[in-house]
Amino acid sequence: MTNAQTASKTYLWIWAWLAGLMLLSVVASELPLAPRLITVIILGFSTVKALLVALYYMHLKQDRKTLSFVAVFPLLVVLAAVLLVASSRLVKL
Question: Which of 8, 32, 12 minimizes the C-alpha distance to 20?
């Protein structure tokens, strides 16, 4: 198998995963669960989809580690903000 065929096969698999995760997000939105839990589930699926797109379609998998840090840093900032909001709700200031 040539390199182009392997790349095409990989892209098709990633596309299938993205479509499957999107379908799971739609199904999760219809589940009889607490709205906050549904939100967390859908955000988790969305994070996995964003990572798949960044690693394979944006080719960050082959780039230097510094560039990967630049891509991951905003995720860490968002995570810190979410944890800050969650902790303030726990304390009830």
Answer: 12
